[in-house]
Amino acid sequence: MRTISFILCGIFSLSFVLVDASPQMHRRHQANASWPLPPDAVQRDYELQTTFEKACHLKENGESRRALSLFRKIENAHDHTWSPRALQQMAEIYEQTHQYIYAVRHLKKIFDLYPEYEHFSKVLDRLFQIAGKLKSGTRPYYFGLIPGLRDYKSAIDFYQSVVQRAPTSPLAPQALMCIAQIEESQKQPAKAIKALNQLIDQYPQSELSPEAFLYIARIYESLVISPEYDQGALREAINYYEDFTLLFPGHERYPWVLQQIDHLKTALAKAKIHMADFYYFSQNNWSAADRLYGEALAIYPSPEIIQEIDTKRQHVRQGISAPKCPVDFLFDHQEQDHKNRIWLETLQANKFTAEPPSHPHHSVESHPSQDRSLAHPAKKNPSSPPLKERKEAEHFLPPSAKADGPSLETDWTKIQLTSGF
Predict the structure, then answer these.
(1) CATH code of the domain covering residue 136
(2) Residue 70 lies in a domain
(3) Angle between helix 120-135 and 83-96 (nearest 10)
(4) Which domain holds residue 370?
(5) Which of 4, 50, 98, 278 could be bridged to 141 by S-S, CB 3.0 to 4.6 A?
(6) Residue 83: predicted pLDDT
């Protein structure tokens, strides 16, 4: 029994010794594991917080340089909690001193290095506000002291940063609209239209999408100096207004857009009429005039346009000459040549299908060079007009074709031979 009790006492005493020695062994193991000791995470966070609070206190008291120095130390720590906050405070200091380039540079670092930052939306809004200041014409300062020139290019770059770094933000379509406004003010309509088209394509559900359609149409309208020469821009404006009416029929500006379409189509049709009048009254080019009158009717057949075109087009198709000026009397033969050409073009279009009447003076022997179908009454010549219509067209013939002789049929044969029928 004594032996057993002695053994038990020894076991209990050994256990107490081991328990007392375990903390010392644990501390000795940690000391031997790595040297020197790494900074404790809690201690490091406490130091960064203390430095940040001190820098904010200096910033509030107007000691910007010392505050920037402390914020820069926090930035270099690359801590995901305190470094983005330090960058945001540095951007505010630079913004207060009108050093917008440096302010945006620090905000962009937050976007690029700390996308999980809890105040991401505030940083984005700050970037948008700085771009708005430059857009409104606020001058940046060099070194915070020397005022510089207005920097619209940087404003566009800042707005583009908003679109690129936060494409799903509601500020993105607003940034595109602001870019278009700046580009238009800088006489860059093509770039403005590009930004607006990007808004329409990427954000069709945005509240700014209807305004983008109207804005593009107004830009194209501003490019129209004279409808006669800027018909391409006029057509584009009409197309965007029509797209607006199809996509937004319930919009409050829908009636106004319909009036604009009516106004622009009338202007485009009158531009075609103006060009047609030039060919009819000045160039004696009746075929071109007739085609342009037809295009004007196709663009907008309103009662006003129809009334203006109807009489002129009838005169063109009936071969009635335009009113002459004194110079035209000196070049009357040119007008007669135009009449002959149009008359022959009418014949070539096969508008006359009746065969010419037989005539005893018409024979193959008397005119060996002509086609036998002209002399033989049984054969039809679809290009020969009947006698009545040829008499009506006789006043179009040149004086050489109105020579005396047996005659109307003979003159008709000459015209056919010389015109290549």
Answers:
(1) 1.25.40.10
(2) yes
(3) 20
(4) 340-419
(5) 98
(6) 92
